[in-house]
Amino acid sequence: MSADGRWVGRSIPAVEHRRHLTGDGAFVDDLQRPHLRHLAFVRSPHPAARIAAVDAEAARAVPGVEAVLVAGDLGDVAPLIPALARDDFVPVEMPLLARDRVRHAGEPVAMVVATSPHAAEDGAERVRVDYEEEPAVASLEAAIAGDAPCVHDDAPGNLLLDVQFADDDVGPDFDRAAAVVEATIRTGRVTAAPMEGRACLAEWDRREDRALLYTSTQVPHIVRTAVAGILELPERRLRVIAPDVGGGFGQKCVIAREEALTLIAARAVGRPVKWVEDRQENLTAGYQGHDQRYEVRAAFDADGRILALDADILCDVGAYSNHPFTCGVEPLMAATEMFAAYRGGRYRARARAVATHKPPMAPYRGVSRPQIVVVLERLLQKAARALDLDPVEIRRRNLIPDDGFPHETPTGLAIDRGSYRESLDRCAAMLGYADFAERRRAARESGRLLGIGFSCFAERTGYGSQAFSQRKMTMTPGYETAWVRMDPGAGVTVAIGTSGHGQQHRTTLAQIAADALGVEPGRIEVVQGDTDATPYGWGTFASRSTVVGGGSTKRAATALGERLKRIGAHMLEAAPEDLELRNGAVVVRGSPDHAVALEDIARLAHLEVHKLPGDIEPGLDAQASFDPPGTFSNATHGAIVEIDPETGRVSVERYAVVEDCGVMINPAIVEGQVRGGVAQGIAAALYEEVLHAEDGQPQSTSFMDYLVPTAAEIPRIEIDHLETPSEFSETGAKGMGEGGTMGAPGCIATAVADAVAHLGIEIDTLPITPERLQRALRSARAPEGEAV
């Protein structure tokens, strides 16, 4: 125990580690059922085509095939129509199985149920679909061209959202600016590539007339509501369970049409049905993200302070919206959260969601904030060069100062207290910034290319319903509810609607409850991921679980603690206000010998209720909800990189993070989240990109083409922590699950840009692949007018 007897703030081992390290975890594909059937999908090979006919006779003749279902077999099952309550949003249908047209390669057209996975795949290969190919649009430029074919007939111009933000007259600020910098910044399409792809097992309980769906999801309650609605099934008749989930990163926080289709298949054959996507399906048909272009210009005064920013933002959202967040999540996030860590001046932005013949996007980890961090950091870097200012100093001048809180951004976001300038100064010191200019100069003289870069950012976390309602979502997430119960043996169960997929919630939430109840975390069981066993909740995404789930857990556990003290006061003949919970007992404050064990209280409350006073009801349980206004973590990332001048390969020599997520519930888990996020961000900066040909055909269909870095490519990450407790959370904690991913691309981009700045090379396209960088280096060194 710590000196104050508290568990919050301690790096205790995660209870989840044991089952994963010993192979005792249970993922969807580990689940078996008697008479289990297997599902395979027939997916379109074309990005855009009309479906003239589907012939399944040959498939039905394959040994082991029991059913082949096409769109016409689904009856009146409703399509998904994600929507926002906005006049500038265009809702479009996402059919469960394509009926008349396909809009991206990999779109499901039919499904085959068989007695084995191999028979199902053999059957799927024998379904004959007569396609009439159509022109496809597979880039932002092609999609918004005047003569572009429409992905959806009811979305002219391929715009699903076109919104203006803060349309101030920025002209005068640009007229009086000491420097104006412009850039067109692009980031490549990425995919989550979780270790476990999407997977479902569905079965129907005839005795209870209920359906059961096991699914690898971040949002079990949202899945239940959506799938029950699609199937016109009362929610009470559908139970959704998320067993162990092998990663999500946003790809699994939206509804997959395969979840509803697996249930439909199970109902059709009267047997349990399992679907587990393979890696090719995941890379070509799963939700993706971050395919964006920013045309920006910024005005700076002579001291390097931002006067105004003008941004035109395009987000390639693929062929459909996701449910429930819709395709608006990326453009709305990009425009509204452009300024967070930095003080902005006047601001004008246009943000558009553009449909293309590519897979739809989901709220991939970070949701546009990695991109806006790149944008701001590159603009500041360019302005520093134009004004002959130190790159760290120009950041310091624009960061929110210590006396600037609460701070309101140009878009109206309220930024709570943080440690913005301190994090920058510490990070610069960790990397030896004061001496780096000499290192870089000496390296250049010897033919080496060294660079240093930084990114400073604020991560909005713990979104409550008020924040989500501003997007005008028709299904508005936000709050969480926790049930905390003590059984007759004094064991504690916390049930909550958040749903972890690798973040060790069972450990951190137990630590929070343990402090409120004065017990060890090992005495507490955290239940999540089961719609029958937990209160309605919104799942895990947007760095919300510790803030919102932890807040409701603390409130409920505190309420239960008060109930324990009332019963303890009766047993000790003491006043409740003189008691405290400590070491598994109710203790008279200042008199540790006068105590009653929680086991004795639990027995009385459950098994000897006749001994309770008349004003105390039997049982030991409490329920509480928490719906916060949201808070902001902050961090600075810094990196030193070296570029091989011949090959264009970038090596990260050092990587440093100074982060402030408020009170750390479990510092070891915080550091794990930082390291994982940074690895994902470095991947987006240097390696990963989902590519499509001009005709929309996917070109990244395996890990030979989609380059996920290994441990050999990720450097040792040096981490320092600051703690500015949040006044808006119950625990003082701020979320931090996405910060590593948000900061790394901008940090790497500015470091690479610094290494090649003397050659006149601008680094405004990510990922920074060796091919792109080698081409730029050759062009910079070629004599004027010579082709490269």
List the helices and strands and how they pair.
Blueprint: H1 16-21, E1 37-43, E2 49-55, H2 57-60, E3 65-70, E4 101-102, E5 108-114, H3 117-125, E6 128-133, H4 140-144, E7 159-165, H5 171-175, E8 179-187, E9 190-191, E10 199-205, E11 210-215, H6 220-230, E12 238-241, H7 257-269, E13 273-276, H8 279-285, E14 288-289, E15 292-300, E16 306-318, H9 329-336, E17 346-355, H10 369-387, H11 391-398, E18 407-408, E19 414-415, H12 420-430, H13 436-445, E20 449-461, H14 465-469, E21 480-486, E22 492-496, H15 505-517, E23 524-527, H16 545-572, E24 579-582, E25 585-588, E26 591-597, H17 598-607, E27 621-626, E28 631-643, E29 650-660, H18 667-686, E30 717-722, H19 739-756, E31 765-766, H20 770-781
Parallel strand pairs: 1-13, 8-31, 11-12, 16-17, 22-23, 29-30
Antiparallel strand pairs: 1-5, 2-4, 2-6, 3-5, 7-17, 8-15, 9-14, 10-11, 10-13, 15-16, 18-19, 20-28, 21-22, 21-27, 24-25, 25-26, 28-29
Helix pairs in contact: 10-19, 15-16, 16-17, 18-19
Which features characterize this protein?
single chain; 788 residues; alpha+beta; Aldehyde Oxidoreductase, domain 4; Aldehyde Oxidoreductase, domain 3; 3 domains; 7-stranded mixed sheet; 6-stranded mixed sheet; 31 strands; 28% helix; 25% strand; globular
